[in-house]
From TrEMBL:
Organism: Xylaria bambusicola
GO annotations of cellular component type: cytosol; mitochondrion
Protein family per UniProt: Belongs to the malic enzymes family.
Gene3D superfamilies named in the record: Malic enzyme, N-terminal domain, NAD(P)-binding Rossmann-like Domain
Protein's name in the database: Malic enzyme
Amino acid sequence: MSSTSKFSHLPLSTRGPIECAVSETVLLNTPYFNRGSAHTAEERKEFNLTGLLPHSVQTLDQQVKRAYQQYSTRPDDLAKNTFLTSLKEQNAVLYFRLLQDHLSEMFSIVYTPTEGDAIQNFSRLFRRPEGCFLNIDNIDRVSHDLAQWGRPEDIDYIVVSDGEEILGIGDQGAGSILISVAKLVLTTLCAGIHPNRTLPVVLDCGTDNEKLLNDELYLGLRKKRARGEKYDEFVDEFVQSARKLFPKAYIHFEDFGLKNARRILDHYRPKIPCFNDDVQGTGCVTLAAIMAGLHVSKQELKDVKLVVFGAGTAGVGIADQVRDAIAAEKGISKDEAAKQIWLIDKPGLLTTSSDLDAGQKPFAKDPSDWPSSSPSLLEVIKQVHPNVLIGTSTVPGSFTEEIIKEMSSHTPRPVILPLSNPTRLHEAVPKDILTWTSGRALVATGSPFDPVTGPWGAQNKDMTIEVAECNNSVVFPGIGLGCVLSRASLLTDKMLVSAVRGVADLSPALRDPTAPLLPGVGAVRDVSVRVAREVIRSAVGEGVATERDIPAGDDELEDWIREQMWEPVYRPLKRVEPAGASRQAKAELKVVGSLEDVKSKQERVKLSK
């Protein structure tokens, strides 16, 4: 990257030196500034580090090599996850560069499924707090506690969870701070969101997890999960405080329970730029996979017959996105489009006689159309003859050989997406699905699987089929990047459709039918640029982009986006005086509340010179 560009003047430009007002051990203990053995000879003199580091100056590449060797010695995935967390607390650039260089290998360590294990063991592995912990018994302190994290211009992206439905493992209480942390790691890795401008939050409402309540080491609020009016008041106090304190920040809701996720999103979506990954992200990335699969099978979206097994937050979110896309494609109402989608949950097909949540009701079927009161998945497939089957049930093995063969007998290239996480909860594994369909199924999964080889090619010769991971990280970081850079006042339906189109257009299967339906993690930053480009263009078209001077042309807009994407490289440190320096330059992770506190902290910085 050259030292200047047409857009190097932008506030989020990643060129040029970084201002630093601290030195000695304060600098080395600040992950954003610390380079460890990579500090240059000049920096060691300028910031008084010469006696604090070994003599040899190393490159970032050498540090990555050493860190990878250390990582490789860890005995299991959870230990590797813990190692990476420790590295992140020491050197942010090295942490993200290590992940970037080994993303395919480490993705499942920093996210699903290993992050789920880390969350379950949060209180036992706890060493150092990260993120903002808000407590429902201290609602009056929400604004105060959030205010410690910066000034209005300091935060771009907030991820918040109440921990009720985490990664298929249920209620994890205060440990859900780690899902907020993990999602923000992905926004940086996949879309270049500046890591020092993000805020992970947990809304600790208590927990209904008896194992946690009975664990003497549990760090969260030790009481049953609060619901009703008090819960709503807590969520609203968070949202209103966050918007007042950080008016440009984009709010990402994560892993809220079924009864709360959709209604919270529906309540705030018309008012603020917000997103729920379980509802919208899962729906967007799944729709992109469906669109790619339909292209390969020479079918059209208007002809979709979709069965979703698992009518929770993710399943209904997918149904919503597909319904809306069908309605737009055919020029019909959403209610009419919903007739092409069948939702099945534990009791069976959802009908108008079922006890339904608001999000499920648009897809309920007339019970008089069915011979049994609660039709099973197999019964629905026999009657409906779907061409797309999606699993979000967390019921392992529920896509049986009989079910898959029944489906494939009515459509030549069925699109089958077992999406439940983690791997042990998948409805079926790709090898079985492909074997039962003689290689005809178009498969994507919710967790990574190895390519599958079988005698499905011409003259029954072995053919290897790559299986796409239908992971939200393909889409949600780019959506967030587009909203952050355009300073969108809202995230609209058209912006989401544009994001889906951006992902689907880059499907490897469009060029090779044996290739994955979705781009892999190795290409995710390029995908995020395309998604952000489409989101920004849509935001401008709808009049919700508040950033000025956004370029209009594709190439120029992509250059504008890339200029503002954070990269894990060591930029030179520029010495500045503490007086008048930014919060970032003074290594302050939070803002102090009074002038006396500011003076006190500045004096401590001076003593470190």
